[in-house]
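[Automated response] Your request has been received and processed.

Submitted sequence:
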Amino acid sequence: MARRGGHIVSPARDLRGGSVDGPEPAASPLAENQAKVPEVYVNGVKLESSYYDLVLIFSLSQGGIDTPVLRVRMAPQHEIVMLAFLLKHWELYTKVTGGLPFPPLLAQELGITDAIEVIQGFAARGGKEEGSDA
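Generated structure:
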């Protein structure tokens, strides 16, 4: 085994398939950027919106105290695309896992009972809109 760039790799090949004895391949700009992107855990989100912007304020709630950890601003058009991707992901998630029950009292407290019913119905119909033949 050889040590290379902080990783232990096979003496014959590194993880990218190149020779361990050859020159170190240049890191891709994408890989360099990925290392700089912060990763955070959140368990709360608040929305603020105007005609031109949507702001998602993600927070960590511990002991009844919400601490904002990330603020994301986007255009309403991006919100629509993000919603479409989230619905598609939920559809796949429910196919694999059978879904995730959402506590009705929590939905009522958050004022999202109708939205939860729409999302769960969408997933149950395999991602098709109600009344759609496609």
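Summary generated for your ticket: The first helix runs from residue 29 to 36. DSSP finds four helices and five strands in the chain.
If you did not submit this request, please reply to this message.
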